[in-house]
Amino acid sequence: MAKASRRSGTQSIERAVLLLKALPLRGSLGWRLVDLANHCEMDKGTTHRILASLIRERLVRQRAGDRRYVLGSLIFELGLSLSALVAFQSVCSAPLARIAKRFDGVSMLFLRSGAEFVCAARIDSAPLKALTIDAGTRRPLIVSAGGVAMLIAMPKDEARSMIAHNMKDVARFGHTRIQSLKRMLRRSKIRGFGISQSDVVPGVSAFGVAIRDPLGAPFASISVVGAAGRFPSSRVAEVVAALDAESRWIAREADARLGKFENSDRYR
Q: With left for phi above 0 and alpha for psi between -120 and 50, is residue 68 left, alpha or beta?
């Protein structure tokens, strides 16, 4: 009985974490109970019980207007204690602004989170309604140029494992979408940087370069996204060179300001 009880407790924690990770996927739109339960492959009763507990602890909030679930304020409060991440985000502000202004697009900072990325910052120099990634958005690495930039910078065995994990996550997207993601991945591997030319969003181009720690591990990426017309083939080399220069600047500044770090865990 004791062993079963321990398993039950662990399972409850795992389910709570699964729900917390799912909530940012819809950002400010929020989730209906039935949709969230289906997404997490849990029954409505269990989902509701766990959400009720998380709401009491302010980890989750249910909006009064539409009864949808979103992340709670305690998530933000806890994050403030991660001083290295806050400082790293600050280091990236100027490079992101330079990239967005130079290419009249949207620049973004992604942090790796296992087989996923989390958007840590976004700066818009030009409106881009088709882009659904905002600060706090979590997605599989394979669905964006910035995420793919980290994938192709990983050791081959690790990358293969992450790609397999991602393909399971995006299986529901349908054949056409999956083929476009595979095309983006193949092109990026050949070019050596993340590149999407209307692969993810029609009429939108995106480029990403990994940010590495002193041991060479990709723990973040910087990317720029914009209307395809702003990024003709003749300009790709300029875009990637600028992203690469900024990624190296970020790595140097982070190391200088935050001190030597042995691996990217400091920024996770």
A: beta
pLDDT tens digit sequence for 235-267:
999 999 999 999 999 988 887 766 544 444 444
The structure tokens listed for 8 are: 């039950």
pTM (2 decimals)? Answer: 0.80
CATH label of the domain that carries residue 188: 3.30.450.40
Q: What is the pLDDT of residues 89-147, one digit of tens each?
A: 888 999 999 999 999 999 999 999 999 999 999 999 887 877 888 888 889 999 999 99
Q: How far apart are CA 143 and CA 236, in angstroms?
A: 20
Residue range of the domain that includes 231: 82-267
Backbone angles phi, psi at 155, to 5 degrees: -55, 150
155 vs 159, 163, 217, 220, 266, CA distance in Å? 6, 12, 9, 15, 20
DSSP code string of 97-125:
HHHHHHHTSEEEEEEEETTEEEEEEEEES
Q: State the virtual CA torsion across 148, 142, 85, 31 in degrees, nearest 10.
A: 160
What residues form DSSP beta bridges with 208? 194, 223
Q: How far apart are CA 237 and CA 105, in angstroms?
A: 16
Neighbouring CB atoms inside 10 A of 182's CB total: 14
Q: How many domains does the chain have?
A: 2
**DSSP-assigned beta bridge partners for residue 118:** 111, 138
Residue 43 shares a structural domain with residue 93: no
